[in-house]
Amino acid sequence: MKIFVKKGVLADTKSQAIILTLFEDSKKLTGMALEIDQKSNGLISEMISNGDFEAKPSQISVIYTRGSLPAKRIALVGLGKHSEFSLEKLRAAFASVMRHLRNLNIKEAATSINLNLIPRKKDQVIQAVAEGSLLGLYQYTPFKTVGREDLKEMDQLNIIANEKDFSVIESAIKKARIITQAVYFARDLVSAPSNEMTPSIMAQKAREIARRKNVSCQVLDKDKMKEMGMNALLAVASGSNEEPKFIILEYAGGKKSEAPVVLVGKGLTFDSGGISIKPADKMDEMKTDMSGGAAVMGVIMAAADLQLPLNITVLIPATENMPSGTAYKPGDIIKSYSGKTIEVLNTDAEGRLILADALAYASEFKPAAVIDVATLTGACIVALGDDVIGMLGTDDKLKKEIDKAAQTTGELVWELPLWESYHELIKSDIADYKNSGSRVAGTITAAAFLSKFVGDSPWVHLDIAGPSWTNKDKTYIPKGASGVAVRLLVEFLRNRVQK
Predict the structure, then answer these.
(1) Are residues 186 and 159 in the same domain?
(2) What CATH code is carried by the domain that includes residue 230?
(3) How many separate domains does the chain show?
(4) Would 170 be classed as within a structural domain?
(5) How far is 359 from 373, CA to CA, in rounded Å?
């Protein structure tokens, strides 16, 4: 769907449907809602007085104007109580109403935005409207052939603005489109089946991103990785016929002397568990184990399109983890890129192995900060559920920056401790470290393992195992891939620019 900003008045706009947001605890209609109610001979106030519309969060009612307005319909959507209003409520409301209109086979709608919904946060309000509208309409359909003609699409949303607010809204909508396109990109990569999203295909997608101004791409092949000593990554790849790839994307938006922010994304395009094979149930979802890699690709794509004045490096170790006669085995000892040795206790704890080499390599860039994003542990889902990102790290300032971005985007993080006592659980008797601790504190011991390969740079680890994929429709995240961490990290980077 495309979003356009047009000058005008919503009440006078010709449209298949005009969208109005209302609060549950509003005593009376005001502003644009009052004007539209008066011009439509009280259609809205009649709905409210009859108790047919209470403006509860994301409640929707569609009224036919019967020629009283240029628009054919008025779509009312609730924002709940004013005291409980948030950007998340706004995103959810627009996602819900846009999906409702699409289900009615409506192709075009119009709305106006109240820029005073949250004082001093006009840009965020505008962005939330666009994000809810676009992200809620996402569908992954490239492999649908039967009944394809029945698929419904929304074509256009017009944001109607007055002369005074036009440039502010147009600028914010442009940025929101860039960010949501990056989320769509990540969702598409994660949604693709593993036979259509191999490490080689993922590398090709990275090369396509590098067509942008100031973006470069380098892809290391198996021989180069072997030469460099990335043996942890190569061990995980050893059971697969698919060639591993180490993807390096660099965006040069800042001064040459400026240290880059390095984003590392786990790129397991399929994870069978290897010799320590997973149960058959839900193994099909293991195509999503490259969600971290997809997310950081989306971030650098958005950063380049937004022309952020920062230097950003993205590293993605991409491989499959498969069982075969050549696969690495429990009990193996691997010398990693850092020179540290790892005892393999469980081949299904593979993500931390490929990230170990990538995080160690990140030090070569002398980074200002390192953030890794990974669907790393089922333990994180047990601890925090499906909606929250687990956050661990070594730098309090960096963690606070990410949490601030999380509060704005609704991609929430929760910090888990990384105390020294946990590090004892990953010490090996015969190597430097083992790739799996005991059953307790699985998310924390995984992060403790990663910390051994980071070096001295400020570092945060984001475990997205829970929110990367959903088995049910959520507010503006349809069932399937969420593209989580794209908006979070773009907001984090934008905040760094503002500083």
Answers:
(1) no
(2) 3.40.630.10
(3) 2
(4) no
(5) 11
- Ramachandran area for residue 66 (φ above 0: left; ψ -120 to 50: alpha; else beta): left
- Catalytic positions are 278, 352
Residue 473 and residue 350 share a domain? yes
- What confidence tier does 499 reach under pLDDT thresholds 50, 70, 90? confident
Residue 141 domain-assigned (yes or no) = yes
Residue 410 CB neighbour total at 10 angstroms: 20
Question: With b meaning 16 or more CB within 10 Å and e meaning fewer, what string describes 13-22?
Answer: bebbbbbbbb
Question: What's the pTM?
Answer: 0.97
How far apart are the C-alpha atoms of 303 and 164, rounded to whole Å? Answer: 28
Interval 136-186: pLDDT, tens: 999 999 999 998 989 999 999 999 999 999 999 999 999 999 999 999 999
Is there a single domain that holds both residue 27 and residue 57? yes
Contacts for 435 with CB less than 8 Å, ≥ 6 apart: 342, 343, 344, 345, 346, 349, 352, 353, 426, 449
Is residue 212 within 8 A of residue 304, CB to CB? The reply is yes
Return the CATH number at 107: 3.40.220.10
Specify the amino acid at residue 424. E
Burial 436-459 (b: 16+ CB within 10 A, else e): bbeeebbbbbbbbbbbbbbbebbb
What would the pLDDT profile of 319-372 be if each residue is shown by its tens digit? 999 999 999 999 999 999 999 999 999 999 999 999 999 999 999 999 999 999
In the block, residue with structure tokens 């969600």: 291
**CA pair distance 234, 219, nearest whole angstrom:** 15
Distance CA 63, CA 45 (A): 11
3-state secondary structure of 51: coil
- Tracing tokens 């786990």 back to the chain, one arrives at 266
